[in-house]
Predict the structure.
Amino acid sequence: MRYHITLTDGTVLEVDNPSRWPDPTNIDSIREPVITAKILTNEEYVGGIFKLVEEKRGRQLNFEYVTSTRVLLTYELPLNEIVLDFYDRLKSISRGYASLDYQLAGEWVSPMVKLDILVSGEPVDALSIIVHRDFAYERGRALVSKMRELIPRQQFEVAIQAAIGAKIISRETVAPLRKNVLAKCYGGDISRKRKLLEKQKEGKKRMKRIGKVDIPQEAFLAVLRIGEDASK
């Protein structure tokens, strides 16, 4: 996926990876690739397909009956919106009675943004995605929620955040595992109990500073599915 980004100084960049996305404050405009899509389906499924294509930012170019019950829909669609789940959802809506043919058809100027996922304050490049600004909050919230489910609990608290530039738009927290340090502390020696709890607290702070979080493969696969999950 290649985006053409015009910077405020007039420079034009071709960017095909979120890791090369420039600082948002330096961006003047962004052009994203667009396709012309032809969808052939039975008329009974047209309503559901209309809803899907509108959700994917499509613009209708033509609507025609090719037979008494078969309809040909022609749309312009951003390539970003169809590469992941569009075909599967089209087949689901039409119960398999829809075909899709498309070709590249130029570019649109769109407010695209880079959505970063931070784990314990550190961005994870492999989890970054490019999304339309209008969908960024919804996708970010869905993604950090999914990460919270997939990342195993550590000895320390793990913060998972979605961010656009320096702005945090969503956050979830993986609660730390808790060891009962008072298990062998019998009686009512409150001062000793307090010292043990303080020692545990300091230990968790130290682990949080130097610890690393293992991110399972399922978390990276979730990025590919998050568009579908967020839209349900």
About this structure: Residues 87 and 142 are 21 Å apart (CA to CA).
